[in-house]
Design brief:
- The protein is globular.
- A hairpin with a 5-residue loop joins strand 11 and strand 12.
- A seven-stranded mixed sheet has the order 2-8-7-6-5-3-4, sandwiched between helices. A four-stranded antiparallel sheet has the order 11-12-15-14. A two-stranded parallel sheet has the order 1-13.
- The chain has twelve helices and 15 strands.
- It is an alpha/beta fold and about 400 residues long.
Length: about 400
């Protein structure tokens, strides 16, 4: 018996696991310290009332023989996929029901979607970026090409001359908060079409974009349906981090090497996935109602205000940063030449604030920190007051 040797090429521990370990150790040594976490991107506001009502009704249905639901469609119930079709129609994007696949979250599908691609493909990943993109490809043994995202290009790398087969794009970006505009995404779509490549477009934070000029879906770019798969999540849109529901869109027009990627993904899902619970999908359906969208936007407005408070504090301190406008993340440049983990220690030990070191997102993340707006208004203001005082 042999193990997957590619795992030896991974970092010893996942970034957020290491952050949590250091926080636990510091808290154990300083039990009286009031720690404020501005690190992990976990929502702090509860599910909105319309979602709770829908899920409560669904729970009651599961308690009656005539309305009980057992195994459902692995691709997702029709009622939820129809709601998503209407949501995208509001963006000017036309989708078919069988192009939408309901999942337990974008993170799962970001890794699982690789099942339909050869390990011989060359993968392009922005640096810095969400660690899951890199780690899942390392686990499979693919060659990963890092695209420099830095202050000079606004943390938005553009296509080069080098050929790649799979391209990860996250917009708004995690961790930098940077957002691609229409012209920039058009350049990526044109590159993918010219190189017979596939774009994996992570739209997990699309609900935070508040400028109608900026695209919220890759399919708002002409030709993207022939070269892009879009992954999205209700974790940030509707607070489903603990409820788990997302979706992946694989257009039927997306054909590579003579094979339909839609058909391949359907085959993979029906083999390895039994679907998202009925109760959760009813709650997700409620998100896309007019009432649900209005209630979810109130929560997003709360997080946007937290980001605004953080931005104002760093403006006052004269510390440069990116993000925080169309994103719940602030990408902070460490002052005084400190490394990411050095400034992490300063904020933890002197101000009792936990953040995420930028170096954990890639080599270009060294010298930066990621702070999240996912917290209460009280904690966010308190943390910024500690810094500015």
């Amino acid at each position: 018996m042999k193990v997957n040797e590619n795992f030896s090429n991974l970092a010893t521990s996942y970034l957020f696991t290491e952050v949590a370990r250091r926080q636990r150790e510091y808290t154990a040594a300083h039990p009286d310290a009031e720690i404020i976490r501005l690190s992990i991107g976990d929502v702090t506001r509860p599910l909105v009332p319309v979602v709770i009502d829908a899920m409560t009704k669904a729970v009651a249905e599961m308690g009656k023989a005539e309305t009980f639901h057992g195994y459902g469609d692995e691709q997702g119930y029709g009622f939820l996929r129809e709601a998503i079709v209407k949501y995208y129609a509001g963006k000017g994007v036309e989708l078919a029901l069988d192009e939408i696949f309901i999942s337990d979250g974008a993170k799962s599908d970001v890794g699982n979607i690789l099942n339909i691609f050869s390990t011989n493909n060359i993968v392009a990943v922005p640096d810095p970026v969400y660690p899951v993109y890199v780690d899942t490809n390392i686990m499979d043994g693919r060659k990963v090409v890092l695209l420099d995202a830095n202050a000079a290009n606004g943390f938005l790398p553009m296509p080069g001359e080098e050929h790649v087969d799979i391209i990860y794009i996250c917009s708004p970006n995690n961790p930098t908060g940077a957002v691609y505009n229409r012209e920039q995404l058009t350049a990526w779509v044109e590159y993918a079409l010219a190189h017979d490549a596939v774009i994996l477009f992570d739209a997990a934070y699309e609900a935070f974009i508040n400028d109608p000029v900026l695209p919220t879906s890759i399919y708002q770019i002409p030709g993207a349906e022939k070269c892009a798969i879009e992954l999205c999540s209700l974790s940030k849109t509707a607070g489903f981090t603990g409820t788990r529901c997302g979706y992946t869109i694989v257009p039927k027009a997306l054909v590579k090497d003579g094979a339909s990627l839609n058909a391949m993904w359907l085959r993979r899902q029906t083999t390895k996935f039994n679907g998202v619970p009925y109760i959760v999908q009813r709650g997700a359906e409620a998100v896309f109602t007019p009432e649900g969208m209005a209630q979810c936007k109130e929560n997003i407005a709360h997080y946007r205000e937290n980001a605004k408070v953080m931005g104002a504090a760093f403006d006052k301190l004269g510390i440069s940063y990116c993000g925080g406008v169309h994103s719940p993340y602030i990408w902070l440049h460490c002052p005084d030449g400190l490394t990411s983990w050095e400034y992490f220690d300063v904020l933890l030990e002197q101000y009792h604030i936990v953040v995420t070191p930028g170096s954990g997102f890639g080599k270009n993340g060294e010298g930066y920190l990621r702070l999240t707006a996912f917290n209460t208004a009280e904690n966010t203001k308190k943390a910024m007051e500690r810094l500015t005082k």
